């Protein structure tokens, strides 16, 4: 449960953060003032593997690059909410938010009726309404939205099917679309139908074999040409991964202050940037007490928790840090909050975090609840589903 007061704080902080992320992305792909003013190191952005030169000079409606953004929060020992990381590429998990709620309402109807809870069931409709606001041609009365999935072998395919149904839009794969004269069309039994907005769940490098990986069979040849011609909207935009890079994360308080003139409502976890000499020195001196993360990874992969690692693992990590310090950040091990969790031996405490989903169109809205992820392994701090984590229904009190 999250109280109304707690949620108001989370909501304000999440909107502030995503607003700054979108302004940052618009800036670096246009005038790059933040780089010229040396608030963020130029080489950290321009040499980053998530930076996309194809986006330079492309202006998006409402400057909405990360139209759907997940902000991962943890609670420290003092109860303060802290941002652990940002998810600005293709954040997943919102289907579990809605399905968990449906399951809870079916299983505990009396408990739910006795408690005033903010709804999450309108997420699909709210999302598609926001996406339609991002059409490149604002005069379109009812722009066609589709959800582009890699297909049935993707681990999040359940979510793609669920969201397409909730949004009331077609679920397509790359082979269902084609580009003709820089215009995107969907193949249907009645012929070709124009597509205006693509909610993509395919990574940048696979979305267009003409522009990125030529071996990709998942994407649509010519999609970037149509995008740059202003004939289709891709959301989230190409190149948003630079904003959720873990090295950029460390600069987020400065980014918020630069664009909004405000201090971060939701502070970062203390972060040491190993590309900076003092950050690397501190990390190497305190390796056994820190959590070390590779900057370009997601899903919990590559994370080394110092206090729980063997001497061999730490020695190997030390070599990697010295060889390629730019690839890592380090943070103190946070004493994550726990929640009662039903396990095979009864109810036991398990570590949790919270991912609010922030949707941006003409305005910005936060789904009242978000994804509470739970580390099901006893003592584990890794809550990612790809690493054996689970999820919980999350109630925001009205």
If you had to describe this structure to a student in words, what would you say it looks like?
- InterPro entries: ATP-dep_Glu-Cys_Ligase-2 (IPR051680), CP_ATPgrasp_2 (IPR025841), UCP005522 (IPR016450).
- It holds the Pfam family CP_ATPgrasp_2.
- This is Circularly permuted ATP-grasp type 2 domain-containing protein.
- It comes from Iodidimonas nitroreducens.
- Residues 1-375 form the Circularly permuted ATP-grasp type domain.
- This protein has 398 residues and is of the alpha+beta class.
- The protein has a domain at 272-332: Dna Ligase, domain 1 (2-Layer Sandwich), CATH 3.30.1490.270.
- Helices cover 29% and strands 22% of the residues.
- It is built from 12 helices and 19 strands.
- The strands form 5 sheets. A 4-stranded antiparallel beta sheet has the order 2-1-16-17, sandwiched between helices. Strands 4-3-8-9 form a 4-stranded parallel beta sheet.
- α1 crosses α10 (252-260) and α6 packs across α7 (157-167).
- The longest helix is centred in the first third of the chain and has 25 residues, at 4-28.
- It is globular.
- It starts with a helix and ends in a 6-residue tail after the last strand.
- The relative contact order is 0.18.
- The model has no long low-confidence stretch (mean pLDDT 94).
């Amino acid at each position: 449960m999250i109280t109304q007061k707690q949620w108001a704080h989370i909501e304000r902080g999440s909107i502030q953060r995503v607003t700054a992320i979108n302004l940052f992305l618009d800036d670096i792909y246009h005038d790059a003032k933040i780089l010229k003013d040396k608030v963020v190191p130029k080489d950290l952005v321009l040499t980053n593997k998530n930076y996309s030169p194809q986006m330079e000079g492309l202006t998006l409606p409402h400057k909405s690059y990360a139209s759907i953004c997940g902000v991962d929060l943890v609670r420290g020992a003092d109860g303060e909410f802290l941002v652990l990381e940002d998810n600005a590429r293709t954040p997943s998990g919102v289907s579990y938010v809605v399905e968990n709620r449906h399951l809870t309402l079916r299983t505990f109807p009396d408990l739910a009726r006795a408690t005033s809870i903010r709804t999450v069931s309108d997420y699909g409709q709210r999302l598609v309404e926001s996406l339609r606001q991002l059409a490149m041609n604002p005069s379109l009365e009812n722009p066609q939205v589709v959800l582009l999935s890699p297909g049935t072998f993707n681990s999040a395919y359940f979510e793609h099917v669920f969201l397409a149904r909730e949004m009331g839009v077609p679920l397509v794969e790359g082979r269902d679309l084609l580009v003709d004269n820089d215009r995107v069309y969907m193949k249907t039994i009645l012929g070709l139908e124009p597509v205006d907005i693509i909610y993509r769940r395919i990574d940048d490098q696979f979305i267009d074999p003409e522009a990125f990986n030529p071996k990709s069979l998942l994407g649509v040849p010519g999609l970037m040409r149509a995008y740059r011609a202003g004939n289709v909207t891709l959301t989230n935009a190409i190149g948003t991964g630079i904003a959720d890079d873990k090295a950029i994360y460390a600069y987020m308080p400065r980014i918020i202050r630069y664009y909004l003139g405000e201090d971060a409502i939701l502070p970062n976890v203390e972060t040491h940037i190993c590309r900076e000499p003092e950050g690397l020195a501190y990390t190497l001196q305190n390796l056994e007490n820190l959590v070390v993360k590779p900057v370009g990874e997601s899903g919990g992969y590559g994370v080394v928790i110092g206090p729980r690692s063997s001497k061999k693992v730490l020695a190997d990590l030390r070599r990697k840090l010295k060889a390629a310090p730019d690839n890592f950040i380090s943070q103190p091990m946070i004493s994550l909050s726990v929640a009662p969790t039903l396990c095979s031996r009864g109810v036991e405490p398990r570590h949790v975090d919270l991912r609010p989903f922030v949707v941006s169109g003409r305005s910005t809205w936060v789904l009242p609840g978000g994804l509470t992820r739970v580390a099901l392994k006893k003592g584990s701090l890794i809550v990612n589903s790809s690493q054996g984590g689970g999820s919980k229904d999350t109630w925001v009190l009205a």
